[in-house]
Amino acid sequence: MKDEILSAAVSKGIFFSPDAMEMILSNDKPMEFVNTVFAHLARNAMFVSKQDIMDCIAGDKIMFESPKEIKPNNKFTSDLNIVKGTDITGESTCEGKVNDFANYFKARFFTMKRLIEKRNDFGKAMTIERAKGLDREVRIVGMVYDKSTTKNGHTMLSVEDETGMTKVFISKDSPIANELFVTDEVIGIIGKPNTRTEFIMAEKIIRPDIPKTNKWELSDSYSKIAFLSDVHVGSSTFLEPQWEKMTKWLRENSDKECINYIIFPGDVVDGIGVFPDQDKELDIPDIYQQYEKLAEYLKEIPDHIKMVIHPGNHDAARPAEPQPALNSVFTKTFDSNILMVGNPIYLNVEGRTVLSYHGKSIDDWVAAVQYLTYEDPLRVMKEMCIRRHLAPIYGQRNALAPEKKDYMAMEYVPDIFVSGHVHGAGQLQYNGIRLINASTWQSQTEYQRMHNFNPNPAIMPVVDLGSGKVEMKDFN
User: Fold this and answer.
1) Strands (E), 80-153
2) Does residue 64 carry a pLDDT above 80?
3) CA distance linking residue 457 with residue 60, whole number of Å
4) Do strands 138-149 and 15-16 pair parallel, antiparallel, or not at all (unpaired)?
């Protein structure tokens, strides 16, 4: 019953304090009781105490205001900055209404369209409505609604823009016959309309992509940046000996190695109610105490290192992406050299653009594309770069909040793109970008074992901000 209640709460972005959970479970009908509590909470309620529940019981009209989302901490102004307009923290306006979703997809479409039209091999697009009546080559931009294969092995796409929808035919003998398409991605199409069928016969598919001319420009920076993803403090499988080995190494070597920054790409704690029977694998079953313990562990890291933390799907943040920064109710014991930001986030670090994203959408990529796997997250990250979008697939495992702008779009070309989530460790270069999957500090859980999920833990990627050299430091 406790797991059901936790799952219901997490799905609504609500977190109960221990005394609140105890009160719910002591009720004769806990599930019915908690649904009544949900009905009487304020719409934006997030952190619920026993007193809050008592207030709900006292009268239908008694509600409460949840702690406000914290503003991004911009105290690091000289060498580490949040790129303006890329942090959702304090900026969320969506209410989940139909109009919000319509506006979100319009924002996505026009953001991607601008990126496609900037390409030298594409240029200005015409609308689908105008293209349908022409008997010459056309260039359109459309969002992929669906994909099918004809009985003869040809590919048929349905794509739409602000003026309507059309079918796009790709011959099985075409050079682009093996292109990968996922729903809701935005593509450019060069082809010729078939006036008889009103299909557009595609000759080329153009994606936003990272320019091939993009490259890492050497700088005179001596600093290095490290990444520690998926720490999972609170889990019984947290690798404390390896963590201690790593922090000891930092205390002894970070100064001479010039490691001045560390980014934590989400899942800094194990959370509660994230997967079935999780409570059986927790050393710390209280979400607040998990963050308090994390704060203790972070004090082991030298003071000169500036740290940046954003949430992942195990953290105490709303499930839907983009996720605002962790609320101060959880981070009040953290040191002042830690910057709390949203997920995803663009940072400028000594002139380098760093994109950090936890990586929950990898679940959707792996489910949708047969040859993409959890064992090779870098290949998924490459597909994100090609589409200039972190989470194009909508309505599957990864929830997306319909904000006014698309925070999941890769509007800027980063120098470093880091993700976590899948507990892999590796690095790849793609068109000048350092792609990094930043390991984990948790050994294999029983849940992962059931799903044949093998982590690659206790590895800290380190990037030289001057040369771009990547080292994978192993603390096993």
Assistant:
1) 80-82, 138-149
2) no
3) 49
4) unpaired
Cβ atoms of 13 and 319 within 8 Å: the answer is yes
Residue 356 has a pLDDT of 99
What is the pLDDT, as a whole number, of residue 71? 38
Q: Is 184 left (phi over 0), alpha (psi -120 to 50) or beta?
A: left
pLDDT, tens digit (0-9, with 9 covering 90-100), for 234-277:
999 999 999 999 999 999 999 999 999 999 999 999 999 888 88
What 3-state DSSP class applies to 33? helix
Banded model confidence at residue 59, pLDDT cuts 50, 70, 90: very low
> Within 13 Å and on the Cβ side, how many CA atoms surround 137?
6
In this prediction the pTM is 0.84
Q: Which residue has the tokens 């029977």?
A: 277
Element (H, E) at 56: helix 50-58
Architecture in CATH of 80-94+213-474: 4-Layer Sandwich (3.60)
Virtual torsion, Cα 273, 278, 281, 282, nearest 10 deg: 10
CA torsion sign for 180, 184, 189, 195 is positive
Q: In this predicted model, which residue has the larger pLDDT, 220 or 446?
A: 220
**447 phi, psi to nearest 5 deg:** -60, -40
Is residue 52 scored above 80 in pLDDT? no
Residue recorded with tokens 């799903």? 451
Taking the alpha carbons of 275, 278, 281, 283 in that order, is the dihedral positive or negative? positive
Q: What are the extents of the domains in the chain? A: 2-58, 80-94+213-474, 120-206
What mean pLDDT, rounded, does the chain reach?
90
- The pair of structure tokens assigned to 32 is 């019915």
What is 120-206's CATH topology? OB fold (Dihydrolipoamide Acetyltransferase, E2P) (2.40.50)
pLDDT band at 75 (very low <50, low <70, confident <90, very high): very low
CB 145 within 8 Å of CB 158: yes
